[in-house]
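Listing S7. Sequence submitted for prediction.
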Amino acid sequence: MKKKIIGSLIAATTVLGIWYFFLKPGDYQVSFTANTFPGAINQTIKVWGKERFLGKIVSQKDLYTIQQQFQFGDSIVDYHWNIKRLTDSTSRVKIQITDRQNSWKNRLLIPFSKTVLEKRSKKVLLNYTDYLNYHTKRFKVNVVGQDTVPPSFCAYLEVEGIQRDKAFGMMRDFPFLSGYVEEQGMVTYGVPFVEIIEWNQKNDSIRYNFCYPVKKPDSIPKHDEIKFKGFERRVAVKAVYNGNYITSDRAWYKLMDYAKKEGLQITGNPIEVFYDNPATNGNELSWKAEIYMPLLENAK
């Protein structure tokens, strides 16, 4: 009987050792609760990592799972982020951290001492939570619910880029677009808006139409870059965004969460209507945009 017990203990210890040293995801794990939604966390992880530590995104399985890589001295360290939505305004974040060059050493020492990996990871993630908290105070998203995108006619430019460069693209292209409209003697009819045509959520690339509403002329002029199109009224879910237009995409994610919660089928291609000129108003939280996420036609 005693031999059986000892044999079982040896087997259990062996299995545990194999799991801990070879199968356990990450040398070290940290988790925390964030007072915001997964989309805002996803985007700040990417921007923060690049700005603060020259980090790079290795892969993104989906909105909630990101693998990020940093180099600290001679060590290449992987951060595997897992984000889970808890409520409309809170998320649980878990990070599994692996030092590629010193993984075995870290797993051996972490249960008994404070390793360099552990100390550094706590500092790095404290830096991130400070960054996240600062960011979430600089914008607001209020989901209104189901609404309609009003009909319009516009002059537009086709643009490709990444999400966080969209606002810079608008600033670059607006003088060209508005100048042409004025040159043609067209009557403007509303404020500029963006129609997202394609959105790759894994690499944050977008293709969009930057639109300037005008009264439809009797004759449509020809231009190599500027085109014209009309929009019919569409049913959508709507949010009001306040903050810097660079991060207006935070409302996209909020609307996706809302649609999923309400069981609504959406196109996944938002429309943004911008009401303020950043050049004349320095108070970013007073900048307003209405964000629409159209419903699929058969989902109305």
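Caption to Listing S7: primary sequence and predicted structure tokens for the chain studied. The chain has two domains: 2-134, 142-299. Residues 8-23 have pLDDT under 50 and may be disordered.
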